[in-house]
Write a structure and sequence with these properties.
Blueprint: H1 2-26, E1 34-36, H2 47-51, E2 56-64, E3 67-70, H3 83-97, E4 109-115, H4 119-131, E5 139-141, E6 144-146, E7 150-156, H5 161-165, E8 169-170, E9 173-176, H6 180-183, E10 192-196, H7 211-226, E11 230-234, H8 240-249, E12 254-256, H9 259-268
Length: 277
C-alpha cells in the first residue's frame, strides 16, 4: 500500500512535466528564420513544416486544365494535389482555429508560390484563387497594406513587378533577385531577395568558408537590409556549417529540405550561443 501511495505521489508530481512536454510537442516554437524549400516533396506537405514550427513554405505550381497543380515538374502533377487542397485550405482552417494566425499568437506566415507555367495564363487564375482566401491574406488596397496571417509571395517565372504593383487590389508580393538590389523597387512590393548560391559563391559547405565568399555574403546581406528586404539563398549546401555562416552573416531565411535538422539547429542556438527564433 505504501509503495502504491508513493507511486501515486510521484505520478502526481510528474504529471505537470508530462503535460508540458505534450503541449510543447503539439505547439512547436514558430521559426521565422527558415524556409521549407520544395515543401510539397515531404511526406506530408505543409504539415511536416508546421510540425517543426516553420513560418515559410514553398509550392511550385502548374496550370493544367484550369487547375493550379503542385509539383516540381509538369510530368509529376496529380489532379488531387492542388494549391488549394495542399496549402490554402489547410492554412485557412488553421487561421480560423487560431484566432487569425497560423500559429497561436504567432508571426506572419509566408507562402512562396513558384510559377512553372506561362504567367500570362496562370496569374489570372492564381489571382482569382487568392481572392477567395482574402480574409487570411495580406492584401493591398489602393496601396494601403492590410496585414493578414499569410502573405503570398510570387517567385520563379512570375508576372512583371510593375504589372503586379499597379493592381488596385493586390493579393501577393514579389520575390526579387539580386538585380533588384540595383533598381531598388518598393520594399512593400518586393520584400524578399532570393538568389542561387552558386552564382555568388564557390564554397560547397565543407572546410572553412573562404574569406572572399564571407565578405561577399555580408555585402549582399547588408545591401538587402539597407533596402528593407529579407534575403534567402537557394541551392546553398544544406548542412550545419552553412547554416551557421548564413546566420552569422545575418541571412534572414535558411533555405532547407532538412526540416527537423534546421529546427534543432535554430533552437539550439548553434550559430550564436543562444536560441534563434
Amino acid at each position: 500500500m505504501h509503495r502504491r501511495f508513493a507511486a501515486c505521489l510521484v505520478g502526481l508530481w510528474l504529471a505537470p512535466i508530462f503535460l508540458a512536454v505534450a503541449a510543447d510537442e503539439k505547439t512547436p516554437v514558430p521559426l521565422t528564420n527558415v524556409h521549407a524549400h520544395n515543401d510539397y516533396e515531404h511526406p506530408h506537405p505543409l504539415f511536416d513544416a508546421l510540425a517543426c514550427g516553420f513560418c515559410s513554405v514553398e509550392a511550385d505550381i502548374h496550370l493544367v486544365d484550369g487547375k493550379l497543380l503542385v509539383a516540381h515538374s509538369r510530368s509529376a502533377v496529380r489532379s488531387d494535389r492542388t494549391l488549394e487542397s495542399l496549402y490554402l485550405d489547410p492554412l485557412h482552417k488553421r487561421v480560423k482555429e487560431n484566432d487569425g494566425r497560423v500559429f497561436p499568437h504567432g508571426p506572419n506566415f509566408w507562402l512562396l508560390i513558384d510559377f512553372k507555367s506561362d504567367p500570362k495564363e496562370m496569374y489570372p487564375v492564381l489571382r482569382q484563387t487568392l481572392e477567395r482566401y482574402a480574409d487570411m491574406l495580406t492584401v493591398w488596397k489602393d496601396g494601403k497594406k492590410q496585414q493578414g496571417a499569410v502573405t503570398a509571395i510570387l517567385t520563379g517565372n512570375h508576372p512583371p513587378i510593375d504589372e503586379v504593383g499597379a493592381e488596385k487590389v493586390r493579393y501577393a508580393v514579389i520575390d526579387g533577385t539580386l538585380k533588384e538590389l540595383q533598381t531598388d523597387p518598393p520594399a512593400d512590393l518586393v520584400p524578399w531577395m532570393s538568389s542561387q548560391w552558386s552564382k555568388s559563391f564557390k564554397w560547397d559547405g565543407t572546410g572553412e568558408m573562404p574569406a572572399a565568399d564571407r565578405q561577399e555574403l555580408r555585402r549582399i546581406v547588408d545591401k538587402s537590409h539597407q533596402q528593407g528586404r529579407l534575403i534567402r539563398f537557394w541551392g546553398a549546401p544544406d548542412n550545419i556549417a552553412t547554416w551557421r555562416e548564413l546566420r552569422l552573416a545575418g541571412v534572414d531565411l535558411i533555405n532547407t529540405d532538412d526540416l527537423t535538422g534546421a529546427q534543432k539547429f535554430l533552437l539550439s542556438g548553434a550559430a550564436s550561443g543562444s536560441p534563434i527564433h
